[in-house]
Amino acid sequence: MSIHAAGYERQSAARANKSEASPATQRAANRGEADRRRAAGADVQWVGHYEDIGISAFNGKERPAYERLLKDCRAGRVNMIIVYCISRLSRMEPLDAIPVVTELLNLGVTIVSVTEGEFRKGNLMDLIHLIMRLDAAHNESKNRSAAVNGAKLLAKEAGGYIGGTAPYGRKLTPETRRTPDGRPIVVQVLTAHPEEAKVIRDLWELIKYHKENPHVRQPGDGRVMPGSIGWLAAKLNRDGVPTRGATTGKARKDSGWRPNTLTRILRDPTLAGYHTEPVYKMRDDGTRTKTVAEYRIVRDEHGEPVTAWEPILEAAEWWQLQEWIKVRSTRKWSGFSRNLLTSTGMLYCECGRSMKSAAAVKPDARQSTYRCSRPTGMVVPGQHTGTSAISQPLLDDYVARRVFAIIETAEDDEAAGDILYEAQKRLGETTEPTETAQERAALVAERADVARALEQLYDVQDSYTRTEIGRKRWTSDVAAQEDRMAAAEERIAALAALDVPELPIASWLECDSDAIEGDSIGPGTWWAKADLTARRNLLALFVNRVIVRKAETRERAVRGKAWKGGAGHDRVGH
Fold this sequence. Notes:
This protein has helices at residues 21-39, 64-74, 86-89, 94-106, 124-157, 194-212, 229-238, 244-247, 259-267, 315-330, 392-409, 414-431, 434-459, 461-464, 468-496, 505-509, 526-529, 532-542; strands spanning 3-11, 44-53, 80-83, 110-113, 117-119, 170-178, 184-192, 276-282, 288-297, 347-349, 355-358, 369-372, 389-391, 546-549, 572-573.
């Protein structure tokens, strides 16, 4: 019978430089074993290599090439699997791995280990030997995992950095410290990388310069403003400043600076020397992935950031940088749009897409419209057909009058008073120091994390509480999470109790003596005299979203009408 041999190669972690030396060695050994058998007279036909790179055989994670190999074995296309050693095939518990191995042997598949021998059906000693090798491979991984986790915990307790690769601007430096029992231990600490730290400091100087000397946009300037993130990234590329990828390994040697990468670097709390902990992305089912979403500042019992490293930027300057990044997104296009509701992130069509400005073709500005940004010609079932548009002047007037109706009736209308209270809190959040805003965000994230942890504990309550020890452990874990929740709630309440600025209602309602009585936004009013930024800032305190619904009839008589009063919550039609 002809032997259809295939090689299986696996490496649990892909090399950063894509050298993949271990799989290369495995490929050569596996193909060499097939060639040796053919040279010895066996009818061996080489099917090919099946490779899983960057995938562990210990944690049960899906291995695409492995699954494809099993499928080909079941289809009769492969009847000999050659691996460098059995641990390449599986590091799972023997009881979990044996059913698959037994199925392969029953299919007549011979398993060949280049370093450990041959395993085939019908030989009891082969099966016993195979089970022993599977058990040894599993225990090796299990012990290695426990040792690595123990070493990380010990390094963390000694103040070492265990976050993997050092962030941009930093390098890992070995340092000898003492464990709680006095034993010396070498840990990795973050120190400033001279060249990269200089890049960060130079970027901050450029940002400060353009903050203090804002550029006045001129015709032909394009859409990138000097001092913006995009401009800074382009400047780094023009100046030939290497990225981290360009200075390490082969995979990203030609990489360039991108705005998103630069923003992530500038947001890193370790720039200010703060101790951080990773926050992982969550799956839809509430379980945690291994992908880091962000790094959260570790705080002490008083809510103050814990400093662990020598700062690259002084803490006060890093917080100023965060403030600049925060407000940058809200004013990104403010210099390009002169319409009230665009560039605010609040104007949406009923289909869920944002609306854009469409300037009037005729000089008559009253013909300008806001239009749905859905591509022309696109048809989506259940959504409006054709273009959805509404008059800019009418919608601007409508929204402004709705807001001022709330302001004017707050004393007599309980619902309007509640809205004013929320607007006051929003004003406080927009004017509070960035450090306070960061702490608030961290606390909200902490509260959400605790809620997920409690939910998971209650999901597994039955398996925990079957024994007395399990019940005690479950009760202790729940109590610990509830203490975390109480502490977060208490601190959030304390931040909410900080001084909140009063809304300047009197100023908003001021008007000239010749203003029309009862018209809060007409000539002579605060609204009429306010610039575009001031108007947008006022709306942002009261409005989350403006949704425009396309009218059911196409008659031209159906138009938006200027709203004249009342604090209702009806939607805008046109």
